[in-house]
Amino acid sequence: MDTTNDKNEKPSQNGKKGLSRRGFLKGTGLATAGTFAFTNSLFANEASTDTLAIAGPDANAIELTINDRKVTTLARPDETLVDVLRERLEMTGTKMVCGRGACSACTVMIDDEPVCSCLTLAVEVQDKKITTIEGIAKDGKLHPVQEAFIEEDAAMCGYCTPGMVMSCVHLVDNTPNPTIEEVKHAVRGNLCRCGTYPHVFKAAMTASKNV
Ligand code: FES
Ligand code: FES
User: Fold this and answer.
1) Which band of pLDDT confidence, cut at 50, 70 and 90, is reported for residue 50?
2) Which of 66, 80, 137, 151 lies at a C-alpha separation of 20 to 30 Å from 127?
3) What residues line ligand 1, using a CB cutoff of 6 Å?
4) Any alpha helices (H) in 84-211, and if so which ranges?
5) pLDDT digits (tens, 9 = 90+) for 174-183
């Protein structure tokens, strides 16, 4: 999937937005005789070429590996993974709620570890394996955690559900026969305003018997 056909944003030819030292000096008006010595020392450690490449502030092409597929898209350097997933790739299974690491609704797996995608910059995970809620069903079959969430009626409004599921998947895939305490620990950061916790705990226990 290549989503670089964004009408408003185009990466530079080499995939990076370049800002040369000369361009920087021109733009800031620092390239005057009086300030040259200062700027020379400012850039003393810079490579000798005059083509220092700086990513941003506009979007550049990046490559991500999501659910075992290479995906090329655009992202600004300050763009979070959840925004890239939802807004650029239209992978809206991952939810964005608080946007500040407080609720875990945005949980995805990075290299098989659950992380908040609202606290993760997309450019930082280009060499990582990203797994989203869309990627845990295999060969048309739901993951046992997904099956158990249905069976145990563990979702109400559903906003916390993808994050809850991802945390439970990590638990049952890595901890055989977890205790209820281990289940509670696994979803300790996942907040549910609908109060589905007892159903979630039950679903995780059920799923652990079916992985
Ligand atoms: S949306 Fe990421 S932690 Fe709440
Ligand atoms: S099901 Fe509504 S927030 Fe958890």
Assistant:
1) low
2) 137
3) 96-99, 101-106, 116, 118
4) 144-151, 161-174, 180-186, 197-208
5) 999 999 999 9
Cα 184 to ligand 2 centre (Å): 16
Kindly report the backbone phi and psi dihedral angles of residue 16, in degrees, each rounded to the nearest multiple of 5, phi listed first: -125, 145
Ligand 2 centre to CA of 106 (Å) is 13
Q: Record the tokens describing residue 127, joined without a space.
A: 């060499």
Confidence of residue 64 (pLDDT cuts 50, 70, 90): very high
Residue linked to tokens 């145990």: 152
Query: How far is residue 169's CA from residue 187's CA, in Å, rounded to a whole number?
Result: 10
The size of the chain, in residues, is: 211
Mean pLDDT of 103-128: 98
Ligand 2: which of 193, 199, 201 to mutate, most ligand atoms within 8 Å of CB?
A: 193
Q: Which residues contact 132 (CB under 8 A, 6 or more apart)?
A: 66, 67, 85, 91, 93, 94, 108, 109
pLDDT in tens, 117-175: 999 999 999 999 999 999 999 999 999 999 999 999 999 999 999 999 999 999 999 99
Q: What is the pLDDT of residue 177?
A: 96
Average pLDDT, the chain: 84
- Are 88 and 73 in contact by the 8 Å Cβ rule? The answer is yes
Closest Cα partner for 23 from 39, 41, 1? Answer: 39
| Ligand sitting nearest the alpha carbon of 192 | 2
User: Which ligand is located closest to the Cα atom of residue 104?
Assistant: 1
Atom 3 (ligand 2) nearest CA: 192
